[in-house]
């Protein structure tokens, strides 16, 4: 279960690196294709806002990667729980306020990871 927990943490971290890339570097191209519910004319106007959101996703990813690199198992588990909790909260909030698909794409992997961490680490 420990290996599964680490794999799930890595998947969530990679997902947030991908979100960082979209929001910080590809907002007016890939962002339009990803966030189809937004009017196309908003993407140029919201580039700096999206980049700011992307930066936060990068922090989440960095924290999750950090949790995988910590040698002490208790400290590693606590850091993983904190950052997975942040991802879960963001995913739940986004799922209820922006798009239901965020519940599946962001919150669910983090929740599965949290469960794996509690069972396996």
Written account of the structure:
- The chain is mostly helical and 121 residues long.
- It has one domain (2-120).
- Helices cover 83% and strands 0% of the residues.
- The chain has helices spanning 2-25, 30-34, 42-45, 47-69, 73-97, 101-120.
Describe, in short, the structure shown.
This protein has 121 residues and is mainly alpha-helical. Helices cover 83% and strands 0% of the residues.
Total number of domains: 1
Computed CA radius of gyration, to the nearest angstrom: 15 Å
Low-confidence stretches: none
Strand-residue fraction? under 5%
Main sheet record: none
Number of helices: 6
Q: Summarize the helix and strand pattern as letters.
A: HHHHHH
Output the keywords:
single chain; 121 residues; mainly alpha; 83% helix; 0% strand
Secondary-structure map:
Blueprint: H1 2-25, H2 30-34, H3 42-45, H4 47-69, H5 73-97, H6 101-120
Helix pairs in contact: 1-4, 1-6, 4-5, 5-6
């Amino acid at each position: 279960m420990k290996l599964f927990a680490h794999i799930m943490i890595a998947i969530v971290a990679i997902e947030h690196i991908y979100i960082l890339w979209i929001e910080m570097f590809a907002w007016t191209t890939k962002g339009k294709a990803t966030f189809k519910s937004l009017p196309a004319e908003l993407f140029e106007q919201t580039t700096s806002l999206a980049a700011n959101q992307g930066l936060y996703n990068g922090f989440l990813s960095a924290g999750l990667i950090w949790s995988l690199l910590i040698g002490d198992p208790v400290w590693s588990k606590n850091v993983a729980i904190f950052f997975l909790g942040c991802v879960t909260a963001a995913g739940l909030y986004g799922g209820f306020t922006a798009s239901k698909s965020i519940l599946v794409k962001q919150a669910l992997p983090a929740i599965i990871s949290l469960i794996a961490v509690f069972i396996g680490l």
